[in-house]
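Lab notebook, page 48
Experiment: co-folding of the full assembly
Goal: obtain a model of how the components sit together before planning crosslinking
Operator: M.T.
Materials (sequences as entered):
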Amino acid sequence: MADQPVRNAVIIGGNRIPFARSNTAYVNVSNQDMFTAALEGLVARFGLQGARLGAVAGGAVLKHSKDFNLVRESVLGSSLDAATPAYDVQMACATGMEAIGSLANKIKLGQLDSAIGGGVDTTSDAPIVVSEGLRAVLLELSRARSTKAKLTALSKLRPAHLAPSAPGTGEPRTGLSMGEHQAITTHAWGVTRAEQDELALASHQNLAAAYERGFFDDLLTAFNGLARDNNLRPDSSMEKLAKLKPAFGKTLGEEATMTAANSTPLTDGASAVLLGSEEFAADNDLPMLANFVDFEAAAVDFVHGAEGLLMAPAYATARLLERNNLTLGDFDFVEIHEAFAGTVLATLKAWESAEFCREKLGLDAPLGSIDRAKLNVNGSSLAAGHPFAATGGRLIASTAKMLHEKGSGRALISVCAAGGQGVVAILEARS
Amino acid sequence: MADKYLELVNSGMTKKLAKLLGLPRPPRLRRYTPDTALLPGPVLVLGASARAQQLCDTLVSWGLDVRRHDAGQSKLGGIVLLLDELTDPEQLSELMLSTGAALRQLVPGARLVSFSRPALAENAPAVAAVRQGIDGVIRSLGREMRAGATANGIVLENETQLDSPSALGALRFFFSGRSAYVHGQFLGVRTAQGELPADFRAPLSGKVAVVTGAARGIGADIARTLARDGAQVVLVDMPAAGDALAKVANEVGGTTLQLDVTSTDAGARILDHALSRHGGLDLVVHNAGITRDKLLANMDAGRWDSVIAVNITAQLRMNEVFLAAKLPGLRVVSLASTSGIAGNRGQTNYAASKAGVIGMVRASAGLFAEHGGSIAAVAPGFIETEMTAKIPLGTRTVARLVLPSLMQGGLPVDVAEAIAFLGSDAAAGLNGSTLRVCGQSLVGA
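Observation: model returned without errors.
Model output:
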């Protein structure tokens, strides 16, 4: 096995449920319900009923403790063969990218012939944990044997303990929310309000156009009464966006530029991508949309202020390009996850900056600029929404289809993540 | 629910009460499962015909207990009337009186099937009279049959014979529980084409079938029925119905294809999906349809145009693509409606589209036959679906109990069974036909 050459890992297709703004269409739906629905739509699209796949991997960023085996439980609730192994992956918003990339590697090595990777998240059905004080009391109570010991434990209970603690998007080490972190980066790179609003508007317009031409007919399955992402605002305009007040950058005063419209909302949703070897696809008469070529993770020290929280993909891209002997100009599609419009624009400016590329990336010349006509051409997270772990699967399936439609070329996909991390990947059209 | 009423008047105390009050008592229908007998008792074959012996031999080969001319006092599961050689109305007397005597011996869910020849303008007047007379006989018998028994006829056109493949195919269909809600109807055997299945339990074995509008209602049952009969099924519906579509697909082991049938590339995408993913296309069921009811005086362009676009224009356009592909032996079955035959208040648009289907099917028969294929339509009457559940209770009760001879609405599976038969190779000789699945409703009789 060690001597075998690596083979191609092929993206066969994908499926996601429409993404829903938090506390709207999927308010009574669990992560497991959503991921199972994403799997079931994928199974139906590709006729995988009863099939034993090599593995299913995915995860959720916000997870109940009862969901320790979320993906396996979803597989058991699906029409796949119950003998399909499954495991959970977690890398914040890069969960889907990491899950799918790792599966692709296993396929390349011949360890798997077929796999499904993806992710799911809900902020509507988020886990709420009891306070540390109450938790300590309850644990002591469960250890107590005698009535006296039980009463002693209970006597330690204080009213303040009853306040529940809900998960936030705050960074544990800085206490700042993701938006506040990005506001610092956005400001540092001099990204204007107008640039961000333009990017947000383009995202909505591109996504709406993609729906209109039926682009999502074979990428999406309706769920719980929703057939399209309900964050999409096809009739948005620069005038409407300009009216919004800044939502992040409290310390920046008049210079704050990030609004609710050029930042992604909290979102519920799930996605899944089917991958396989060429043999698997051919044997099962399945399409081959694109090759999963390579992927790279990076992390930055945002805690001590050395880099912006969401800038890791800029670093990962440099390393990935070098390893694959490619430049930014070699890509026909560039998909940069729109956590915030500022994230995308700061990343683009970083790649164009001789100083950044020299000082931070150690390059002789800037990586260069991206032709905007190649950027997020069918809309991205600002319009679709961003259910953290589900975004990677959305991006990879849609991008693979774009390459298949074009019939040639390469695509770069970039996803930033909490904890100062990021994952980027290269897909290539099948020739 | 119709089911509840049907159960009440057919069991226990409430049955006695219903009888006492003279309430209509809709019978339980004999529906198909792969494991039940073709007929619920022996079959009596009455009348003379040149190929009677061949027919009886076939019936015996189907495992039936065949009685010729006289069944004595035995219970009967079916009667076959051979009327194809009659030349004068006077000849009906003896046969009809024998039939009448045998009717008393029929068990619940029995079948009566006649074979006759079409009454044509070029026939001698007496010949045409007796042939047309048979039409009246079967339709009237339909009104007299009880306990879920049905009467239907097979018309041997163009010198086809009793044992032509599609004549036998139609006979088997009428005998079986597949035709539970088909009553008082005629199927015309136009050609000697067609082939009976090697395995009657899997007549669509190895076939690739596409069903539009497969997410729910009749379409979902069509997908289930075709899969049960051995077909690989491609399930098509609007993206907005995708979750329901996926459920049905995962139940029947098919694949989903989300598209709007009115899009210009719908036919090409269906063809591409079937060929690339399933290696062929053998059967297309044009089931997708909508209603947008309004009295014509209040009709608007949106209602009129959308019904025409989905129910007929989309089918015409897709058929052109399928014909151009010259697929060998491609069968197409379309959904018409009794509204397209009898008309229905508030449904000028719908009736235009559904009557249009009947015309399209008749005119397309020759085109599909060029490559060994065929096309047919099924016209459902009152079928119990989510759609008809919205009809007000009074209207619904009349539609169920009073209008059809079988005194109940049909089930989606009844329509699906007729489609599965018309889409099989055994039905190739019925090319161009429209079959009503209406329980012999008065509507459009």
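Interpretation: Residues 178-214+293-429 of chain A form a domain with the Peroxisomal Thiolase; Chain A, domain 1 fold (CATH 3.40.47.10).
Next step: discuss with group before ordering constructs.
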